[in-house]
Amino acid sequence: MAIVTVDDLTLAIKNSIDDSHAMVEEQAYELAHHVLNFFGYSDRIIDNILEPEDRDAFYMLEDGGILTTEREETTLYDGREWRIHYWLFKRDKIADLMVNSRRRQADDDDGEFVYADLPDDVWQRGGDDAE
């Protein structure tokens, strides 16, 4: 997966959130667009550019496996330690969430027609046969 598009990320976001907290397509799209505005064509951004509301959204995406964090430590010239926190795309997880969506959608489509081939009389209760 070379570039994460808004549509790719939208699909991954929708599939990373469990059904009890389902997100409508428009909300997932807006979140994907917002997140990609930070990353651009990069895989990594520095945490301190985020506002608290943005960071909350990033933590939600981290819970879904879409983002992860890493930190780097360096020693300043005066001997103090300095930590830099980054957010990273997990491209493999995004790709997996996109594939699982297509697979789940195909399974759902198959499930809709399970009973379609049964004759109408199957659905009628028999008088003596029913217990």
Could you characterize what this model shows?
This protein has 131 residues and is α+β, with helices and mostly antiparallel strands. The chain has a single domain (6-107), classed as Arc Repressor Mutant, subunit A (Orthogonal Bundle), CATH 1.10.10. Helices cover 46% and strands 16% of the residues. The protein has four helices and three strands; from the N terminus they run H-H-E-H-E-E-H. The protein has helices at 6-16, 25-39, 52-63, 91-112, and strands at residues 44-46, 67-75, 81-89. Strands 1-3-2 form a three-stranded antiparallel β-sheet, covered by helices on one side. A hairpin with a 5-residue loop joins strand 2 (67-75) and strand 3 (81-89). Helix 1 crosses helix 2 (25-39) and helix 1 crosses helix 4 (91-112). The radius of gyration is 23 Å and the shape is elongated.
Label this structure with key terms.
Arc Repressor Mutant, subunit A, 46% helix, three-stranded antiparallel beta sheet, alpha+beta, elongated, 131 residues
Please name the CATH architecture. Answer: Orthogonal Bundle
Task: Sketch the topology as an H/E string, one letter per element.
Answer: HHEHEEH
CATH class: Mainly Alpha
Structural class: alpha+beta
Total number of β-strand segments? 3
Major β-sheet profile = 3 strands, antiparallel
The shape is elongated
Mean pLDDT over the full residue set: 82
Strand order of the largest sheet: 1-3-2
Strand content: 15-25%
Any idea how many domains? Answer: 1
Oligomer: single chain
Low-pLDDT runs of 5+ residues are: none
Q: Can you tell me the CATH topology?
A: Arc Repressor Mutant, subunit A
Span between termini: 57 Å
> Rg from C-alpha positions?
23 Å
Please give the count of helices.
4
Helix content: 40-55%
